[in-house]
Write a structure and sequence with these properties.
Blueprint: H1 2-32, E1 42-45, E2 48-51, H2 88-104, E3 128-129, H3 131-135, H4 138-145, H5 149-158, E4 160-161, E5 172-174, H6 175-186
Antiparallel strand pairs: 1-2, 3-5, 4-5
Length: 188
């Protein structure tokens, strides 16, 4: 028994040093070598700093809207709604989002609304939408800003990020970057 207890204590100490000291130190060192120094990717617009990798709330017609958030884009409380697809409250919330989307985007048939535009992500902080999510909003944004639809479509295409190495993940568009580019184009 004494042999087993000593072996367990030794293993605990080794794993404690490895997993509670060495691994976090390695991750910290790698983060410090990143372009942002491990402090998060930020963008600045009109003297205000925004975190690029945290979803932002946009509700004006002249901006592309982000994916809905179950936590009102509060990064301190990242979470999903934890409501299943058969939950009546959740279905009512999604229906309200669909109705709101259709009011602001009347030229988009209900069947063509991308699901990400009416359902919250698992974290509630998703900063990206799909090209389809942006395409569904192009007409509204162009009209609100007095821009040609083709010009806004070209801006969306320019900000579409391809999958990592062409293999991992879907195409996506960072909503904050796209909206800042729109502001620069409109000189707002």
């Amino acid at each position: 028994m004494k042999t087993n207890v000593l072996a367990a204590i030794k293993m605990t100490v080794v794993l404690l040093v490895l997993l509670a000291v060495a691994y976090p130190a390695l991750v910290w060192a790698i983060a410090k070598m990143s372009p942002s120094g491990g402090m998060g990717d930020t963008l600045e617009r009109k003297g205000k700093k925004y975190y690029k990798n945290i979803g932002q709330s946009f509700t004006e017609d002249g901006y592309f809207w982000s994916r809905p958030s179950a936590v009102d884009y509060n990064a301190a409380g990242s979470a999903g709604s934890n409501k299943g697809p058969s939950n009546e409250d959740y279905l009512a919330e999604v229906k309200t989002r669909i109705d709101t989307f259709l009011i602001h985007n009347p030229d988009v048939p209900e069947a063509h609304i991308p699901v990400e535009m009416v359902t919250a992500s698992g974290s509630g902080l998703d900063p990206d939408i799909s090209p389809q999510g942006a395409a569904a909003q192009v007409s509204r944004v162009a009209k609100a800003r007095g821009l040609d639809v083709e010009h806004v479509q070209a801006l969306v295409k320019k900000h579409t990020q391809k999958p990592l190495w062409g293999l991992f993940g879907p195409e996506k568009i960072n909503v904050l970057e796209l909206n800042i580019a729109l502001d620069k184009e409109s000189k707002n």
